Amino acid sequence: MNGKTKTIFFVFGLAILFYMLYQFGFDNIVINIKRTGWWFLPITGIYLFVYLMNTIAWKLIMKAGYNRISFKDLFTISISGFAINYITPFVNLGGEPYKILALKDQLGIHRSVSSVILYSMLHILSSFVFWIGAILLVLFTLAMTSEFKIILEIVLFASLLGTLFLFTRHKKGIFRSIIKIIPKLPFSSQLNDRIKLKEESLEIIDEQITDLFNNKKNIFYSTLFLEVGARVVASLEFIFILRSVGIYISMVEAIYINAFLSLVINILFFMPMTLGVREGSLYFIMEILKFTSGVGVYIALVTRIRELFWISVGLLLIQLRKHKPAADKNIDNLSVEWESVNKQ
Predict the structure, then answer these.
(1) Span 61-72, mean pLDDT?
(2) pLDDT digits (tens, 9 = 90+) for 133-171
(3) Dihedral sign, CA of 234, 235, 241, 244?
(4) Is 293 or 254 the better-scoring residue by pLDDT?
(5) Where exactly are the structural domains of the chain?
(6) CA nearest to 47, candidates 318, 303, 291
């Protein structure tokens, strides 16, 4: 990634960060940090372990195919990618283009695209697995109204469908299906012509995506296990936040909170930077768990501050990361490279 592109990501991120700080209020941040006390250290620190697990999972994906990047470099890219996701309005996917650009000089464009897509697919799949597990826990352990139970059963069914769809895409690929569907759509001739120009590249990327599931299942499931595990570890944040105000919850309750919060945020992905979504969902889930609604608002405030901290770290790492030149001029000749990897 050249200096100009890196600066664009940094300046964009910094502008959004200052906007979030302004909206949140500097006085509000100071008051809540003081209220949280020393518990703020484990609250923010737990995400260091979450990001480490995310990076190990991503590194495993790269080792499954073609690996030429250090863990340290991948770790910084991962943190910066998640930071950009936090501040990207609406879809929260701005970190993916950054990751591709950060990796392409060392891995080539095809390999960087396929590794980022593969990781994103597994990251999303782990969300569905986590939600399914949490919903089953809720259905068997919590008393609830029949209406709420029906809603949970619908969400469970939708999560199972999402899981099935992602497993199918891991097995059959993404772009082959798109290439077949687009010509059948009305007014798609120009788009179809553009895709045909990139068809060979898309086929290479698809082959790399399907290879992990079809030929390296042990790595696929190890990566999925790490990603689900990272979500369980992230649930500790809610235990630490509530301990700071003298409230004790179990690990199972922390998983309920984390799963419900992430589910609502993903359903309402179109809300800019999830403003109001986090507060509303935590207000609701804490009432279900028989806590006062004010506790949910406090959790939302502290998690916002934790996010602001890691956004700052991620943006700083973008600027500190040194440019890594490609190791050879033929790095994008992946059709030959991929064949040699598969023979090993």
Answers:
(1) 76
(2) 999 998 888 877 888 889 899 999 999 999 999 998 888
(3) negative
(4) 254
(5) 3-175+206-316
(6) 303
Highest-confidence range of 86-100, 114-128, 293-307, by mean pLDDT?
A: 114-128
Inform me whether the pLDDT recorded for 189 exceeds 90. Answer: no
CA distance 53 to 46: 11
pLDDT at position 317: 92
Structure tokens at 142: 């919590």
Q: Which two tokens stand for residue 126?
A: 């782990």
Q: Which two tokens stand for residue 166?
A: 């992602």
Take residue 103 and report the two structure tokens written for it: 């990796």
Q: Answer whether 9's CB lies under 8 Å from 98's CB.
A: yes
Distance of CA 95 to the CA centre of its chain: 9
* φ/ψ of residue 324, rounded to 5: -110, 110
- Using CA atoms, how far residue 317 sits from 118, 151, 264, in Å, is 23, 42, 30
- Within 8 A by CB and 6+ apart from 250, the residues are none
- Cβ–Cβ under 8 Å, residues 321 and 338: no
Residue 318: name the closest of 78, 120, 117, 85 by CA: 78
Q: Alpha-carbon distance 157 to 143, whole Å?
A: 20
Q: Which of 136, 133, 132, 167 is nearest to 149 (CA)?
A: 136
In whole angstroms, what is the distance from residue 327 CA to residue 333 CA? 13
Measured at the CA of 202, the angle between CA 211 and CA 1, to 5 degrees, comes to: 95
